[in-house]
Amino acid sequence: MPRLLGWDKKRCAERATELMSMVALDPKKYLKRYPRELSGGQQRRIGVIRALAADPPVLLMDEPFGAVDPINRETIQNEFFQMQRQLKKTVIMVSHDIDEAIKLGDRVAVFRRGKLVQYDHPDTLLAHPRDDFVGQFVGADSTLKRACYWSRPATRRRRQKPRVPTHRSQRHSRRWTTTTSAI
Question: What strands, in cross-sheet order, belong to the sheet with 108-112?
Answer without folding.
Answer: 58-62, 90-95, 176-181, 108-112, 115-120
